[in-house]
Amino acid sequence: MASNPDITLYAYKTLTFPRVAIALEEVGIPYTIINVNVEEHDNLNPEYKRTVSITGQVPALIDASTGLKLTESAAIMFYIVDKYGPHLTFPAGSNEYYELVQFIDFVTDLTLMVGFGKLIYDPINNPDYGKTPGIEGAMRWRVSKNLTVLNDRLKEQREKYPGSEPWLVGGKFSAADISAYATVLAASGLAHIEIAELGLDELVGWKERIGARESAKKVDGLQEKFADGDGAWPRVFKRTEA
Ligand SMILES: N[C@@H](CCC(=O)N[C@@H](CS)C(=O)NCC(=O)O)C(=O)O
């Protein structure tokens, strides 16, 4: 391990939370969570932007042991695995390394589209709820197509690495799988797209395999701690009126 980590994760129960939290759990390093309640706009507190996140968004990470302040879930995940969990990535410069970058980039596009599902289907975010069939159709087409790409990749990897269950890159569970899992997990709740109904059987099996890992089960259980009340993570950046 490169150094003694001293990590604080600023987060909320959003689509991207599992991406960074599962990476932290998989590498097995201690970390502290601060609840930045975006529903109550804690992230708009100017101190949050000044001291934690350059974009004013969640998730964000500070590693006091290296002085790094980082935002954007894919960048945070890269940092965690590069620095503390090399078994979840591939040697820089190898073909597998660039394939990993390819899938993380691809999943970013998919995440954006899945996120559109929230804008379309959530009446709180969309006053025109139910009146946007064109956008809805485009979102559904694009999300379904990209989920199919992941399914096809897993089928291809099953042939390339016979005798073991398939992963997205290099025949092993890696950051590419963690990244994609967070988004595939959200496809049902946010975009109302069920991978089983699309017949994406490889993706269904892959999702179940990741969901059964201790890291994923633990992170699933952490989500409720973002609620207010007993057991909640601390909220140190409550919104202040300008
Ligand atoms: N591309 C960013 C997306 C981050 C993002 O959109 N965060 C949302 C919550 S899911 C947020 O902080 N929204 C509040 C805002 O933008 O003010 C990532 O992957 O971390």
From TrEMBL:
SUPFAM superfamilies per record: GST C-terminal domain-like, Thioredoxin-like
The record lists the lineage as: Eukaryota, Fungi, Dikarya, Ascomycota, Pezizomycotina
Domain named GST N-terminal is located at 5-88
This protein's name: Glutathione S-transferase
The organism encoding this protein is Ascobolus immersus RN42
By sequence similarity, the record places it as follows: Belongs to the GST superfamily.
Q: Which Gene3D superfamilies match?
A: 1.20.1050.130
GST C-terminal domain mapped to chain residues: 93-242
What Pfam family is a match for this entry?
GST_N
Q: Which domain of life is it from?
A: Eukaryota
Q: Which InterPro entries match?
A: Glutathione-S-Trfase_C-like, Glutathione-S-Trfase_C_sf, Glutathione_S-Trfase, Glutathione_S-Trfase_N, Thioredoxin-like_sf
